[in-house]
Design brief:
By secondary structure, the protein is an alpha+beta fold. It has three domains: about 130 residues, no CATH class; about 100 residues, Helix Hairpins (Orthogonal Bundle), CATH 1.10.287; about 140 residues, Heat Shock Protein 90, CATH 3.30.565.10. It is built from eight helices and twelve strands. It has a five-stranded antiparallel beta sheet with strand order 1-5-4-3-2, with helices on one face. A five-stranded mixed beta sheet has the order 7-9-10-12-11. It is rod-shaped. About 20% of the residues are buried.
Length: about 425
């Protein structure tokens, strides 16, 4: 059984209920304990009153009840004794009972006897003198009876079990709602689900509101993606015509410079449009295929066009992944490499390896890396760091990587290892 976290809602509610139950049990037990000891003290006082009356020279109220009661006597306070707690409920009850029988208790101490503690009472005799009289009665010892302790333990156990049961029933729908929220991946359609079992009206309302919000967000993302994809696609046609027209210019020295500038700018615009389309695909392509991560990494490295002294590649022969898409894997690695070469410094190293339950992609370079304060913001679309202001680009590289990693249920991390900046992507290996 999985134990709840100490700061979870379940643990807090359980501790609150158990704490209240324990407090009530302690109060109840203390009340029963006090009343029991007071009742026993009154009985002891009634039992020993005739013997004490006779010893003090007073006429006994019940002459026959002192038989077998042996008092200890002393003219001085017993050595080694300590003062009895006169304000304790049992001592108050004993004093009241003895007073009712005409006995005037002036002081009380406790000493150790051969068979246990002895309660010594200082009484005023009939002749006006004071004397000490000892009562060796085990009933006067304050103790918690076994039956009462067992009853309190049973009550505490039952209340703790009931608190656990009802708290679990109260928090289980919240846990189910949290799991549903976490299982929803960006870009995936909102599945139709049954209502959460045992959900209160408040939790059901939260679930409904969340589903409606998710559907509106999905519709907004779909419309935005269609708009971006449509505009990007439509822009490529005039760019292609511009490039074709540039190729038809006169082949002379006067026009060569302008022709090269037109071609260069149309190619740059085409790359920017390609980045827009990659960002759209990162959220639209279905993750329903099998792909080889190692092969995708090698293909992205080869497409980058960098020599072996600039780009070092270390991949296994094959690393199959499920619930993915080969194009997304290739674009993920390609954007990591592109960022490393644009904003880092060669040599760049690409490493792919498998660990138990996960696949790891690491791209490292000798540059300064991404500042820690900007790591979160640079994963947003069109965000660019201070060091990248003068470098051509759209600010979509890390956004595409982050989006793909999030959809595949992985993690993206930035580290500094042995003086090199490392970007690590961890993807789950599904069975």
């Amino acid at each position: 059984m999985k134990l709840p976290r100490p700061d979870s809602l379940f643990a807090r509610l359980l501790l609150l209920q158990v704490g209240v139950a324990v407090a009530l049990i302690v109060v109840l037990g203390l009340f029963v304990y006090i009343e029991r000891n007071a009742a026993i003290a009154r009985l002891v006082g009634e039992r020993w009153a005739p013997a004490l009356q006779r010893a003090a020279g007073l006429p006994p109220t019940d002459a026959g009840s002192q038989a077998g009661r042996t008092l200890l006597r002393s003219d001085e306070r017993p050595a080694g004794s300590w003062r009895a707690p006169l304000a304790a409920p049992r001592m108050v009850a004993l004093d009241d009972e003895l007073t009712r029988h005409g006995l005037n208790v002036r002081d009380a101490v406790v000493s150790r006897g051969s068979s246990g503690p002895v309660l010594w009472l200082q009484l005023r005799r009939a002749d006006g003198t004071l004397g000490w009289f000892g009562i060796a009665d085990i009933a006067l010892l304050p103790r918690l009876p076994g039956r009462l302790a067992l009853a309190l333990l049973i009550i505490a156990s039952v209340l703790a079990a009931l608190s656990w049961y009802f708290t679990r029933r109260l928090t289980r729908p919240l846990e189910a709602l949290r799991e549903r929220m976490q299982s929803q991946r960006p870009g995936e359609p909102v599945p139709s689900r049954e209502a959460i079992s045992g959900a209160t009206p408040e939790i059901a309302a939260i679930e409904t509101a969340y589903d409606e919000l998710l559907q509106r967000f999905e519709r907004h993302e779909r419309e935005r993606a269609l708009l971006l994809a449509g505009v990007s696609h439509d822009l490529r046609s005039p760019l292609a015509r511009i490039r074709m027209a540039a190729g038809l210019l006169r082949d002379d020295a006067a026009d060569a410079r302008w022709r090269e500038a037109i071609v260069r700018n149309t190619e740059e615009a085409d790359r920017l449009i390609g980045s827009f389309l990659d960002h759209v695909r990162a959220g639209e392509l279905s993750l329903d295929q099998h792909a080889d991560l190692a092969a995708a990494a090698r293909a992205a490295a080869a497409a980058s066009g960098h020599a072996a002294d600039e780009l070092q590649v270390d991949t296994p022969a094959a690393l199959p992944l499920s619930r993915t898409h080969p194009l997304l894997l290739e674009r993920l690695v390609a954007n990591l490499l592109d960022n490393a070469f644009k904003h880092g410094r060669a040599p760049v190293r690409l490493a792919v390896r498998a660990e138990p339950g996960r696949a790891i992609v690491e791209v490292s370079d000798a540059g300064a890396g991404v500042p820690e304060a900007q790591r979160e913001s640079l994963q947003q679309a069109f965000a660019r760091g201070d060091a990248a202001r003068g470098t051509p680009g759209t600010g979509l590289g890390l956004a595409i990587v982050s989006r793909v990693v999030l959809r595949m249920g992985g993690t993206l991390a930035f580290e500094r290892v042995d003086g090199r900046h490392v970007v690590r992507v961890v993807l789950p290996l599904h069975p």
